[in-house]
Design goal:
alpha+beta, Heat Shock Protein 90, 5-stranded mixed sheet, 12 helices, about 10% strand
């Protein structure tokens, strides 16, 4: 019965681990219901196989009875396919084997059932904590960032699995050789996987650095455009000031000759020319104003209708540069979404209020269907996309802000409350 307990426990644990890494195409509740319904069926079939064919047959056929149906299930549920999905499944298998070897090692040298159960639960808790705290957030980004090369770690883990299951006789926790040799090989795999995690972390840092450089370039470009616009306006104002004396003399001469209406028309025309060169200022903070000016100018050049109302507090609740990055990401996403639509259907609505708290809302039309993860964040469909959302999410975590994304009847909206 101990053998059956380990097989059934590993089945539940393995399905749970794969579920943690799953980027499902469906909502969270039906996904969980489907996964654990299939898990229950697999456990029943495994128990029947164990009862009628014995433990050897159950272990030898475990890959076909549990792992193959599990892979087909997650292939149906997951947005990610190919080698990346195989790597997710094999990762769950790897960590399940580690939990099993830790518990079996403790049971072999103690001989007590309560030690086995305790070791299972403690090692499971530690592994799940590691997966949730460190590996899952890293995987969710790397699986989209890294598109190639997954076959190599899959081959290594599959080889490890085949060696443990088919080449080394006996069972860990029962046979001395298996109890010592299998955990030793698992320790080697821990080293291999540590190298993989280091590689994934490096890729993540590189992506974040690249994104930060892009945002810095964006801010610099916005500030340069703003400076150029202000300089052009100042040059025009200097020219108009130079011509002001001549206009006043002309207007005075027209009044002295009794041509008051012509003088008024002349002055109104001059006033209109001054109004045309007036530079729009959206808010006081210079970096935020530069971002607003830059993106709204781009929107106007792309025939995007603007509906803007901005009320900025005197003191910002966050560092101005970081808030500008959030604003730039939101407006950039809105611009890109509009460019896929015909000009007559393009619009951006931007609201920023300062009371009772700072709230930013950016909405735009969206013709594509957007999916959201378990945290309510939009899921990127193409490589290199989604970094803006990750930047906004990081900002929210740092400043305890609340951010909401939603798509309702072809209208995408982002709300940030700080």
């Amino acid at each position: 019965m101990i053998d059956l307990f380990m097989l059934e426990y590993m089945t539940v644990l393995g399905m749970t681990m794969i579920l943690l890494f799953l980027d499902s195409r469906y909502a969270l509740r039906p996904t969980i219901l489907t996964v654990y319904s299939v898990t229950g069926l697999l456990m029943v079939f495994l128990a029947l196989l164990y009862h009628f064919a014995g433990v050897d047959a159950a272990v030898r056929s475990y890959s076909f009875v549990v792992h193959l149906p599990s892979f087909l299930l997650f292939f149906f549920l997951s947005r990610i396919r190919g080698w990346r999905l195989i790597f997710q499944v094999l990762t769950a298998v790897l960590f399940c084997l580690m939990v099993q070897h830790i518990a079996s090692f403790a049971y072999f040298f103690s001989g007590k059932l309560w030690v086995l159960v305790t070791a299972y639960f403690l090692s499971t808790a530690a592994v799940l904590w590691f997966l949730l705290r460190f590996l899952r957030p890293l995987f969710l980004q790397i699986l989209w960032e890294l598109q190639k090369g997954w076959w190599l770690p899959c081959l290594v883990i599959a080889t490890y699995y085949g060696i443990l299951l088919y080449l080394i006789p006996g069972y860990a926790g029962i046979d001395y050789m298996s109890t010592v040799l299998k955990p030793a090989i698992s320790l080697l795999m821990v080293g291999f996987y540590s190298v993989l995690v280091f590689l994934f972390s490096s890729i993540q840092q590189e992506a974040q650095t690249r994104h930060a450089a892009q945002l810095f370039s964006l801010q610099l470009s916005a500030l340069q455009n703003r400076i150029e616009a202000v300089q052009a306006a100042e040059h025009t104002i200097r020219t108009q000031r130079h011509d002001l004396r001549h206009r006043l003399l002309t207007a005075a001469e027209l009044v002295s000759r009794g041509k008051k209406e012509i003088a008024l028309d002349f002055l109104n025309t001059a006033l209109g020319q001054l109004d045309e060169i007036k530079e729009t200022s959206w808010c006081r903070p210079p970096i935020l104003n530069a971002v607003f000016s830059s993106y709204f100018k781009k929107a106007q050049l792309e025939n995007i209708q603007l509906d803007v109302k901005i009320s900025m507090p005197d003191t910002l609740p966050a560092e101005e540069g970081e808030l500008a990055v959030v604003l730039a990401n939101a407006l950039e996403n809105a611009l890109h979404a509009n460019l896929t639509l015909p000009p007559e259907k393009r619009w951006i609505r931007c609201r920023m209020v300062s009371s009772p708290s700072l709230m930013l809302e950016v909405s735009n039309p969206c013709k594509e269907n957007v999916s959201f993860d378990s945290k309510g964040l939009p899921i990127a469909r193409r490589e290199g996309h989604g970094l803006g959302v990750q930047s906004i999410s990081a900002f929210c975590e740092k400043y305890s802000a609340v951010c909401q994304f939603e798509l309702i009847q072809g209208r995408f909206r982002m709300r940030l409350v700080l």
